[in-house]
Amino acid sequence: MKKGINIRPSFWTNRGLCFALVSLFTFAVFSVTASAQVSQSLEASHSVDPETYRVGTELVVTTQITYEGILSAVGIEVNLPDGWTYSETGGDDNPSARTLDSGDVEFYWTQPPGNPIDFTYTLTVPENSVGKKQISAIVKYRRLGGEEQAVVE
Predict the structure, then answer these.
(1) Do the beta carbons of residue 41 and residue 30 sit within 8 Å?
(2) Residues 5-60: pLDDT tens digits?
(3) Contact 136/5 with Cβ under 8 angstroms?
(4) How far apart (Å, rounded) are the C-alpha atoms in residues 123 and 115?
């Protein structure tokens, strides 16, 4: 099941600043059947508070990944809107991070923390950002049998 973020082009100005309504990020569920025929799932969600972004400022995104079973590695690749940039991470399960050549950002753990994995990341919204925006992500994780993926939009 895929669900995603909707950023609507609902604008209003206050002292010359432009705002756009951002709906909550929702979650995607991905299930895997292990060799023992036991269903193991992974769920990921991310959200923003407040539900609006303000041009020229930072936006904090809260992310949670829950899973069943044992993971040997986990990561999440976040596709940012054009011009948006990654600033920093935080939270209880602070990941390693790197900015990709595309401008997107990847967070990862080579030794995953316990379930659930909770962290935040901060994005900088450019001055010229207007209209509907989407932030999507793919969670990549490894179990003993190989790599799996779950889409988070």
Answers:
(1) yes
(2) 444 332 333 323 233 323 333 333 333 322 233 357 889 998 887 777 889 999 99
(3) yes
(4) 25
Q: Please tell me the number of Cα atoms within 13 Å of 67 on its side-chain side.
A: 26
- This prediction has a pTM of 0.70
What span, in angstroms and rounded, lies between the C-alpha atoms of 83 and 102?
A: 11
Buried b (16+ CB within 10 A) or exposed e, 10-19: eeeeeeeebe
Task: Report the side by side order of strands in the sheet with 136-143.
Answer: 96-99, 105-109, 73-79, 136-143, 146-152
Using an 8 Å Cβ cutoff, are 26 and 49 in contact? no
Give the separation between CA 97 and CA 106, rounded to whole angstroms: 6
3-state secondary structure string across the chain: CCCCCCEEEEEEEECCEEEEEECCCCEEEEEEECCCCCEEEEEEEEEECCCEEECCCEEEEEEEEEECCCCCEEEEEEECCCCCEEEEEECCCCCEEEECCCCCEEEEECCCCCCCEEEEEEEECCCCCCCCCCCEEEEEEEECCEEEEEEEC
